Amino acid sequence: MKQILTFIALLMIYTSAQAQIEQGDTEISFMGYYSTMVGEDVDPNGTGSFQLSYGKYITPHLLLGVAPTLSFTTGQDEDGDPAVETNWSGSVFFTYNFSTTSKLIPYITGQFYQSRFDIPENAEFSDFSFVTFGLGFKNFFNEYASLNTQGLYGFSLSEDAEGGILLIMTGLSFIF
């Protein structure tokens, strides 16, 4: 037990740094992720995406922002041939940091995620809308830049939805 407490104390000393996040700071993140629909009656699928997020710190702990996303999905066309589809999506989000003064900052996050803006004629906007929540951490490698990783789980706002959405995102974040 003493070894664990000593390790935690050393980790806290190692990760302590000057205050990195202040009210009014702006954060820009470049994130990539893989998402898949999950559930008993959902066919296996996958999408790779690139996301650019922009947010403003309302308090040193609370970040609010928007994140446009470009997704690439592999699948098959009507003839059964391999096809790649590109799609724009996006979200509005919040992040609550549990610390603002260490190199390793854990946080919770939530977002309204619209997985598609080009809605087919036979579908509703809500068929592609999700609410997600998750955990993440930012590991600062200097005062202004960090490796940012998060995992999210969400549910669809569609009345006919089965299963949920799982997102695992990683990338770089910059504070200025």
SSE order and pairing:
Blueprint: H1 2-15, E1 26-38, E2 47-57, E3 62-76, E4 82-97, E5 104-114, E6 129-140, E7 145-156, E8 164-175
Query: Major sheet: size, sense and barrel closure?
Result: 8 strands, antiparallel, barrel
The CATH level-2 architecture is identified as: Beta Barrel
**Integer-rounded radius of gyration:** 19 Å
As a percent range, the share of helical residues equals under 10%
- Kindly report the spatial arrangement of strands forming the biggest sheet: 1-2-3-4-5-6-7-8
Describe what this molecule looks like in 3D.
Strand 1 (26-38) and strand 2 form a beta hairpin. This protein has one helix at 2-15; strands at residues 26-38, 47-57, 62-76, 82-97, 104-114, 129-140, 145-156, 164-175. With 176 residues, it is mostly beta strands. The chain is elongated.
Summary?
With 176 residues, the protein is mainly β. Helix content is 8%, strand content 58%. It has a single domain, classed as Porin, CATH 2.40.160.
Features:
elongated; single chain; Porin; 1 helix; mainly beta; 58% strand; 176 residues; 8-stranded antiparallel barrel
